[in-house]
Amino acid sequence: MKDVVMTAEHTLEKLGLTAAELTGGSLEVRSPIDGRVLARVHETPVADMDAVFARATAAFKAWRTVPAPRRGELIRLLGEELRAAKEDLGALVSWEAGKITSEGLGEVQEMIDICDFALGLSRQLYGLTIASERPGHRMMETWHPAGPVGVISAFNFPVAVWSWNAALALVCGDPVIWKPSEKTPLTAMACQKIFEKAVARFGDAPEGLLQLLIGGADLGKALVASEAVPIISATGSTRMGRAVAPIVAQRFGKCILELGGNNAMIVGPSADLEMAVRAIVFSAVGTAGQRCTSLRRLIVHNSIRADLVARLKKAYAGLPIGDPLAEGTLVGPLVDEASGQAMEAALKAAEAEGGTVFGGKRVTDGVPEGGVYMQPAIVEMPGQTEIVKTETFAPILYVMGYDGFDEALEMQNDVPQGLSSCVFTLNMREAEQFLSPAGSDCGIANVNIGPSGAEIGGAFGGEKETGGGRESGSDAWKGYMRRQTNTVNYSAELPLAQGVKFDI
Amino acid sequence: MKDVVMTAEHTLEKLGLTAAELTGGSLEVRSPIDGRVLARVHETPVADMDAVFARATAAFKAWRTVPAPRRGELIRLLGEELRAAKEDLGALVSWEAGKITSEGLGEVQEMIDICDFALGLSRQLYGLTIASERPGHRMMETWHPAGPVGVISAFNFPVAVWSWNAALALVCGDPVIWKPSEKTPLTAMACQKIFEKAVARFGDAPEGLLQLLIGGADLGKALVASEAVPIISATGSTRMGRAVAPIVAQRFGKCILELGGNNAMIVGPSADLEMAVRAIVFSAVGTAGQRCTSLRRLIVHNSIRADLVARLKKAYAGLPIGDPLAEGTLVGPLVDEASGQAMEAALKAAEAEGGTVFGGKRVTDGVPEGGVYMQPAIVEMPGQTEIVKTETFAPILYVMGYDGFDEALEMQNDVPQGLSSCVFTLNMREAEQFLSPAGSDCGIANVNIGPSGAEIGGAFGGEKETGGGRESGSDAWKGYMRRQTNTVNYSAELPLAQGVKFDI
Amino acid sequence: MKDVVMTAEHTLEKLGLTAAELTGGSLEVRSPIDGRVLARVHETPVADMDAVFARATAAFKAWRTVPAPRRGELIRLLGEELRAAKEDLGALVSWEAGKITSEGLGEVQEMIDICDFALGLSRQLYGLTIASERPGHRMMETWHPAGPVGVISAFNFPVAVWSWNAALALVCGDPVIWKPSEKTPLTAMACQKIFEKAVARFGDAPEGLLQLLIGGADLGKALVASEAVPIISATGSTRMGRAVAPIVAQRFGKCILELGGNNAMIVGPSADLEMAVRAIVFSAVGTAGQRCTSLRRLIVHNSIRADLVARLKKAYAGLPIGDPLAEGTLVGPLVDEASGQAMEAALKAAEAEGGTVFGGKRVTDGVPEGGVYMQPAIVEMPGQTEIVKTETFAPILYVMGYDGFDEALEMQNDVPQGLSSCVFTLNMREAEQFLSPAGSDCGIANVNIGPSGAEIGGAFGGEKETGGGRESGSDAWKGYMRRQTNTVNYSAELPLAQGVKFDI
Amino acid sequence: MKDVVMTAEHTLEKLGLTAAELTGGSLEVRSPIDGRVLARVHETPVADMDAVFARATAAFKAWRTVPAPRRGELIRLLGEELRAAKEDLGALVSWEAGKITSEGLGEVQEMIDICDFALGLSRQLYGLTIASERPGHRMMETWHPAGPVGVISAFNFPVAVWSWNAALALVCGDPVIWKPSEKTPLTAMACQKIFEKAVARFGDAPEGLLQLLIGGADLGKALVASEAVPIISATGSTRMGRAVAPIVAQRFGKCILELGGNNAMIVGPSADLEMAVRAIVFSAVGTAGQRCTSLRRLIVHNSIRADLVARLKKAYAGLPIGDPLAEGTLVGPLVDEASGQAMEAALKAAEAEGGTVFGGKRVTDGVPEGGVYMQPAIVEMPGQTEIVKTETFAPILYVMGYDGFDEALEMQNDVPQGLSSCVFTLNMREAEQFLSPAGSDCGIANVNIGPSGAEIGGAFGGEKETGGGRESGSDAWKGYMRRQTNTVNYSAELPLAQGVKFDI
Prior knowledge:
The structure is a homotetramer.
Chain A: H1 2-14, H2 19-22, E1 27-30, E2 37-41, H3 49-63, H4 68-97, H5 101-121, E3 127-130, E4 137-145, E5 149-152, H6 160-172, E6 176-179, H7 185-202, E7 210-212, H8 217-225, E8 231-235, H9 238-250, E9 254-258, E10 263-267, H10 273-285, E11 295-301, H11 302-317, H12 337-352, E12 356-359, E13 377-380, E14 396-402, H13 405-413, E15 417-418, E16 421-424, H14 428-435, E17 444-447, E18 459-460, E19 463-464, E20 471-472, E21 481-489
């Protein structure tokens, strides 16, 4: 394992992080791979927050009048720098978050994609011109920069979620203040280095477009409470969202929340089972079940249930578990010991509620010492009990049977979360019904692909306890701007709307 | 005055309200015109709320699958019924809210306009089809009905604001639960009668599409807190919004807030003063200064300040104040005695902060006894002091001078509210700067028209303490729906986004 | 039959057509029902065309500055008048075009629908505000009225197609000059009466918003050639379009062409055959096969071919053929004797090319004398021969078999026309493939509904020899406006785009 | 001058053009700078055209199913290659088209900008999902690739116009067949080399995505007439467009025409004259008056006319004319002798029609021998005579006076062309009126910037004899795709639109 740490050090160096930045700090960063300390980084003092807000406000005043296509050029350069740093940053994601190589690289690719998308947006940011009811009047609505954006991100997508927010926010004219997870400060620091390279090439950006808050919950609290930060984009648990949202609401700020998911797949009798198996395994065990979009609930037509479960068990039995940086590994470690215990507790609860567990044991052979490696678990449940309705951030897949499609839909919707969902079926009626107003109640609903792995072109986010926010594609950029409705009277008359008369 | 009450009774009867509904209840409804009791209506028991929510939920399940153009037909019929009832409902608005005749009718016209607009929307509700990065895949986003909508409205637009919400919500597939102001239950009850006529002609609408909550704050609280009501659209004071928003946020509901405004007009040296005077008087004294978009702050270039103030004083001196239903009246009563006292207190504070008050006295001659009639006030201020930054719901116009346009813009933005704003100028540079990213920070910004009297085609609402909601035109309808992002794989392959590989 | 004529006269009278208008003219109007003369109407002299154009131009100058929502009010009133005249106008469509009652009424309903839609549009007509690359600059695009629109319509939709064009054109600010088919001047004259009622209620519309050209091809030619008419919307045969398009193109006018269709249905092995049969019969024999969207080609999977054909023959055998105004009739007359002969010629050709014809005979029993009544024909073909690729405006359905779905798609696309198409399948892969970039090449492509009977909310029109025009819903309204791109510089600087330097 | 030619050779080499390609051909390429032969290139034989079309068709079949974001990647790479080749390609534009250095580089920058824009589009290409009137039905419209696009470009923007078309067409899924001007084949050949570099890096593009037609009008004719090329985008003279458009129309192809402009500026009494002078000079003499958007008509308020003309003459007198590659040059050569003679003829005609000419003489001192260098001309006209209404592709500026703004607007619109236009004014009423439905009738209308130098974010093109096409930004991409309207029935019912009944 020493090698890995050494390589991690080398990568950190290549990404521009200095020894001074990586040592002597109060925040210990451990790799989920083997639990070793990768660095001890310096925390942002809470006392500095006022200065942070002041810098962001000043940066906003300058940045908002920079033409959007010029702001887009900064993001284009950021995309170039990310392309150049892809391998290193991807590897660092593996070290710090425990993802397998392909997923670490995929996450960086997602950053690159959003930069391309935001670059295009920078010549759009379309508002509307609107027909006015009054002669000699013109109406339009314009989207203007809104102010500094606070981004709170989670360990499991330590860099992509930031980039979704930052690429859009910066193109929209807003500076960013980023509070990454305490578990993943290094990837955040690396992103800032990469961003600074882009800024240097760009030339005349105001200082303070991106500020990093390294540390714990007190920083997040200060960020969330600040009137200087009109927009808070927070990714994490429902519990966190439930704390954050009212504080922001009370000060009339805007929240973009990406909270818990408890994502299901319905497998219909006509499904292509071979595809379904691959989709299920990727969705349920990818990132060791620690995606907000991980598949957690499998709702299978009873006619194919036994067959499908058998196939899944076979696939699960052969999954390569271990060092995520090793070639061929598909299941890496959980992020920490607490996660491992949470998984064990959930499996216990599931058994208590009538479930039969397959897998779910600790793995100690052939895996790096010091990491928390678990067998992904398949749990056959008699119904959708309490534990099934609870999000456990671990590779647990609950399996339930159904007979009629309406029953399956009802089960799909009968959880408090509303992020992602999917159906496997070759029957167009089932597929369409799943996507209809009476179908899935989630923000994401797919057909014949799993619930995870969204493209950046669509809006990402979910309903109910997932928090209702939308990021990434479509018109999610509007969440980073303020809308203004304008009526311009170029006549010499003063007609009132709705035919009101008021002659003085 | 007896006549008026008699006519009110007659109008109530024509609008279908029965004696049983108007008498014997615990909620006394007084007319601002003369303070007489118009009716004693029955309050909705808090104990009934669960049944209300259950009816709304059942109605939602049925209504969401009714095709939107068919839902639009209901709103078309509502528009027809409103056209038929325009004079009566307009008059009732005058009696119950104290508006002058033209404004009462204008409010009903606004209801009609939004019905026409919503009818058109009912064949749109456009989502997007989106280019997918994967072969054999299709992406789209669809907007689905979201669930019951709680509408909390204020006394000053007792019917229009409901119609903005109801027309869109119903076309979008959502039932409505309406809690009108305690001061204006009669107009709400009349609206429900009108709505029921439309429903009867429509034929097969589910029961419970519109439910009325008559009574006080406890009903509002129950509404706001209910998980059965995913969307709360609340119009009222900032104080109210600050109480409502966190409650809704904590349960991950969505708020559409239309709160306080403190709206300014900048008058530049090139302004058409004759037009400006007319716009100022209408915006500042219309609805007796009780619009959320009423003009409250006048920021005048010092070169024309004296001239403009003199013209305004002359116009104010000649304003017909009195019975709002009498021909020619431009200024009716304040809604109640508390409002009169608040106005007096504000004027006193303004004087204490260095202001010079013109007008602002109680009017007792030639006005109906029992109402609170005030002279609209012009207050020349040495600067934008505390009281100027406070919204007082009364016809007070604070006047401040400026020298440079940037200074004027800064004053315009230097209040906590962010609803409406305008500039009077013939200089295109000033006009455009006012509308630019560095211009007005309000949700509405106009040129050469006052801050009030928006057309329904634009999105209505404001920033900062105004609450950030948008109603009426543009894509405000999206606030009443849930967005779903779909990816459909019709190939026999299973490629992952971002090029991720995961081969089991 | 006397009764019918009498009723026709009564209906014409109810629709406001006077004896003077209906008699003494040079254009004889015969009913397809029994060939009797319904009226002799007066033709527009070609010599009047200059005056027509002058009136349209003058009307345009006035109408273009009337606010669009006000223009929408005219269309709302038109919708009301159409609702009031629905039964009469529907009946007149039956008399003059030979449609069955339900289709005549459906056509009027379509007119009503488009009025509702256009009313909503009248507060939209959205252009864009666009991010500019230059500081102190604002970009937007606006849609402006374009000028008089020439509408050339065909006998088979004598009123709906006009309304699609007129409702949009008038809301967009453009007057309309309408040249209906020589075969159906009466319904056009009735529409003008209805329109005039709306205009009268509207109040202050300029004269000449709608002008009718009654007569033959010379009027159409003058219309098409006129520089005063920037937009020509022409519905009819491909031959007509091929003549019109180059003339308009040479004078840089815009064409909206709705020409021939040769619409196919693919029926896959998983199709719901019971539904397919009903869809096929309606699409193939509705309007006696005289819709541009009529189903003409049936491409059936060989495994179900025999079964499907047997079911169709059974259904065809029981079709009630006769007086379209009689209760229960599903198949009315062809429009004239030439159409009957064209059908017979096509069937003969089909036989010569290897086809086996079922039905297709003249019907003389139980049908009104003087009309051309034909049995709808099913022709089983060995392949897609020449006659199959030719549009014959009659109820002929060619049936071909296929084995692989790609083969079926290729047959679907292998005709010169490109209007409408559909697939019946419960297999989502087939459904999606049909709608994919490599699927149907038509402007309309449906799943599990026939090719005809589009809703007005979508854009209507087709590719290839169909002419490429789009009418009705979506953003088809843009075809009636001109787009203007605006850049406004409100700074005191003069930066050039693309960083060009040019310092004098 | 020898140096220049040598450098040209070096640049051609750097751009990858080989001696074999540059010599021995039948098409002589001369530099406008000094008339020397830059190369003798090989013409595409007309006999090859069928193969060209076949390759394009094959490429289309493959390219249309490549996901659009992947197609966008090719354009991103093209943008990178253009960035790398910017100086060389810009210089070649100067040599081959005679543009000054800054304009040559600006043209390449425009290519880069459109690549960025198209890259963003590649994850959009948005169609709509649309509310259906029928239960259990779903409507949407999708944009699909349309087929090979023929691009005909002119000498004056030898590369940018191609890139506008190619970037959009390729992202939209369409191969491109490019026929550049006979005068500028070298820049086209260089572009193909650059494109091939991008293709090589891309990896798996089908062969034939970009094909070049080198030669004369017969190639253009074959291109325009081919059924294999559904879209023709042609830039050039009105005369050319008038020939092309009917041919394409007759075969139901689509034209995107960018033809003649005769662009005016209105200068109002409040205008910032210092800015106006700079804008006028750049717009009128930039690219030696050979832009389609060049300023040709100056409509000046009579109160400032003398002053403005005097300032212009002073500025014109000091213009550096000569070798466009020399530092400081603002006016380079006309493209050829014919252009020089056309300019002289126009000036003569202007004088005959009452004009007074300033400048307009041949320049022979201090300019490279062999080129056609002309003094830009200012011609004061008594009114808008025939020659003023004619586009002469040379630096002639006609000046006319006006008194009322309506008069100025009428003059602005009273020419057959309709490309670009602008007003200089600080008066917001004039500015807005100019942009209103009754204002400029051009496709482009600007305020306080000249008529030329559009940003790529807006749609580019014009009305009337300009041909009506739109390229570049906004939704111009739709011109390269086909629209398909889909209705999907996922119910087991078969309701008909408009409530039609047809029960068999």
